[in-house]
Amino acid sequence: MTKIDRDRVDGLLSQERARFQRDHRRSKELFERARSSLLAGVPMNWMTRWVGGFPVFVDEAQGSRFRDVDGHTYIDFCLGDTGAMAGHSPAPSVAGIADRMSRGITLMLPSEDAIWVGEEMARRFGLPYWQFALTATDANRFVLRLARDITQRPKVLVFNWCYHGTVDESFATLSGGQVVARAGNVGPPVDVSHTTRVCEFNDVEALEAELAHEDVACVLAEPALTNIGIIHPDPGFHDHLRDLTRRHGTLLVIDETHTICSGPGGFTKANDLEPDVVTIGKPLAAGLPAAAYGFSEEVAQRILERAELIDADAGGIGGTLAGNALSLAAMRATLESVLTEEAFEHMISLAERFAGGVTKIIDSHGLDWHITRLGCRTEYLFTKDRPRTGSDAAASRDEPLDELMHLYSLNRGILLTPFHMMALMSPQTTAADVDAHSEVFESAVAELTG
Q1: Do 354 and 320 share a domain, yes or no?
Q2: Quick one: 323 and 253 in the same domain?
Q3: Is 211 inside any structural domain?
Q4: What does pTM read for this prediction?
Q5: Residue 82: left (phi > 0), alpha (psi -120 to 50), or beta?
Q6: At 381, which CATH number?
Q7: β-strands 216-221, 129-133: how paired?
Q8: β-strand 155-159 against 216-221: which pairing, if any?
Q9: Domain that holds residue 74
């Protein structure tokens, strides 16, 4: 296997940083200006982590591409980290949004679009009853409260290195077998060991041991890990997960926010899962804030049996803007005309092409890297062995190489998802877009190994 020279990585990284600074002068000017009014110079904290020293400022975006304020055009494989998986400003969504905006945006009253979207979500995911929120974080928070209420159990179980937005209970990890707060967990309201149990993904024995305490209201699970590298479930893992949760009276919540990349009904539909609850956000409304959470018949009845009408506006569930008319109109247009069966077939075929191109280059240069695909999402990791757990993936991270490959691509018009080498396809992504990435990837590898 070809070994990467770390001095070469450092040298190339210095060159790419200098090129980025030189080619993005207007973005840098805006960043410096923003430092006087925006905390750390950005409107949201994680934007500080973009490679290059400051983020690219966007001018406009359409389909699978966007242009920055310095006039550079990029092929976008980040797509708002799934929020723009429908593509930037798809025409059907824009038309639905524009029509609704002229007829009222939010009213605290239902619209017919809400019924249509509920029916469509039931068809796609197989759960009969739905509610709406503005983010998947909110959907997960509301579901956790409901799960604790109907089970009368205090704890939530998550898998190590999971991703569920900014849900307090999910910012936990394992250290020496003990549940502790993950690095960067800002101001947790309580010690996470009081609210959360954690075990490794794909570890059936550990899962059973944690559920045996009989204090877990629900397992909140990505059906495949996605934010620490794509980690597929072992064969039979989901069968064990479903059997164990039922046996121990624990609800199973599947978070499809990233794994919607598996198909129109997410990983749940593609793999015939039988969750009690599904949560999802990000791409449903083509980038407009929107999320949904759905319940099985049994869970819905349990919720309704404990509900008090007098407390409907003060139970910690929902929000004034949740289920607003504009979000629901955007969801209807996007689900009806953009994120269709045909669109997913196109997107998944492009992801296969993307993975094939990267694999060919890795093999031709004798690198001990690999690429993994989940539906229309792909990710390459700088290791030979495919991780089975979040801890495996976290231990294999290579920050300097990750930064170099991301910045090298960005400097040549390819945007990948930050913090890891992930690429997502949209309905507007083309084979030419994918092949352009392969050319840039080939160039980067040649410079690294030359």
Answers
A1: no
A2: yes
A3: yes
A4: 0.97
A5: left
A6: 3.90.1150.10
A7: unpaired
A8: parallel
A9: 6-88+340-449
Asked whether residue 1 is assigned to any structural domain, the reply reads no
Three-state SS for 280?
Answer: strand
d(C-alpha 196, C-alpha 192), whole Å = 6
**Structure-token match 């030419």, residue found:** 432
Same-domain status, 213 and 238: yes
Could you give the angle at which helices 431-449 and 341-364 cross, rounded to 10 degrees?
Answer: 20
Residue 302, both tokens: 């349990």
Contact 161, 203 (CB under 8 A): no
Spatial separation of the C-alpha atoms in residues 23 and 21, rounded to whole Å:
6
240 and 306, same domain (yes or no): yes
Kindly state whether residues 160 and 234 are assigned to the same domain: yes
Query: What is the distance between the alpha carbons of residues 96 and 336, in angstroms, rounded to a whole number?
Result: 11
| Residue entry with tokens 């400003």 | 89
Residues 147, 53, single domain; the answer is no
Looking at 283, 316, 337, the residue that finishes a domain is 337
Long-range contacts of 298-301 (CB under 8 A, 24+ apart): 299/150, 299/251, 300/128, 300/129
pLDDT, mean of each 10-residue run, the chain (450 residues): 91 97 98 97 89 95 98 98 98 98 96 98 98 97 97 98 96 94 91 97 98 98 96 98 98 98 98 98 97 98 86 81 97 98 98 98 96 97 94 93 96 93 97 98 95
| Cα–Cα dist 199/161, whole Å | 10
Helix (H, G, I), strand (E, B) or coil at 166: strand
What's the CA gap between 194 and 409, in Å, rounded?
Answer: 43
Asked whether residue 164 falls in the same domain as residue 306, the answer is: yes
77, two tokens: 């494989």
The answer to whether the CB of 145 falls within 8 A of the CB of 170 is no
Maximal CA-CA distance, the chain:
71
Q: Are strands 129-133 and 291-295 parallel, antiparallel or unpaired?
A: antiparallel
Taking alpha carbons only, the member of 388, 385, 393 closest to residue 201 is 388
Q: Exposed (0-12), middle (13-18) or buried (19+): which is 57, by Cβ within 10 Å?
A: middle
- 292 and 331 share one domain: yes
